[in-house]
Amino acid sequence: xxxxxxxxxxxxxxxxxxxxxxxxxxxxxxxxxxxxxxxxxxxxxxxxxxxxxxxxxxxxxxxxxxxxxxxxxxxxxxxxxxxxxxxxxxxxxxxxxxxxxxxxxxxxxxxxxxxxxxxxxxxxxxxxxxxxxxxxxxxxxxxxxxxxxxxxxxxxxxxxxxxxxxxxxxxxxxxxxxxxxxxxxxxxxxxxxxxxxxxxxxxxxxxxxxxxxxxxxxxxxxxxxxxxxxxxxxxxxxxxxxxxxxxxxxxxxxxxxxxxxxxxx
Length: 265
Known about the structure:
The protein has helices at residues 7-22, 31-59, 63-84, 86-89, 92-95, 118-121, 127-133, 254-261, and strands at 101-105, 123-125, 142-143, 146-147, 152-156, 164-169, 174-179, 183-187, 195-200, 203-208, 213-217, 230-232, 235-241, 244-250. It is an alpha+beta fold. It has two domains: 1-84; 118-261, no CATH class. An eight-stranded antiparallel beta sheet has the order 2-5-6-7-14-13-10-9. A four-stranded mixed beta sheet has the order 1-8-11-12. A hairpin with a 7-residue loop joins strand 5 (152-156) and strand 6. The protein is globular.
């Protein structure tokens, strides 16, 4: 049996129905297209990873290369798993022993962010004023017993407690980033000549041998600081030492980059 509405509730019912008809509902998103793009990404990642593993297996057929190929094959399986499982992609840096570096492997959808100089997203500072703004000791490279004076110093302060000190060496062709929180990177499929495991003073390190990837800083919660997203067109050395994460962007070789990193005082 239907219930008779009182005049008061009847007016409310009429108003609600009129409001519902006048409300502009957002368009239904094209979920199928988004899912299709994601599936295409996963398929490409799986295909490239499988191809990489197959090449390593072929190398194992040669006795001289068998031992080395076996080691690389194990690493390739781990990386291939990271390519296929999205949750593992962001944890890829953990495989290299870096807890404050997040690396996501996969194509960059949409237009990449611009290439930015430190002066575009950080504030100019002196070395002493920068030191007053961070809780860690700023370290600089040393050559022949003399500390290298930076051409410019910047402090990136987009998030409380997530300050980044940037020392720019234009003539020496490198920029040195230092942070207590860490850095994020995203780029294409890694291979044995692009993403390498190395070390600095015995601390595990990652060497990205060329540009073409995206970088940003992380805040104290490990989240990407969106304002610092930028494209990087140089090689990058990443390592952690005494609670500080370092990022050295350069066009120099790996040996030269490590030499600079190990000279920090």
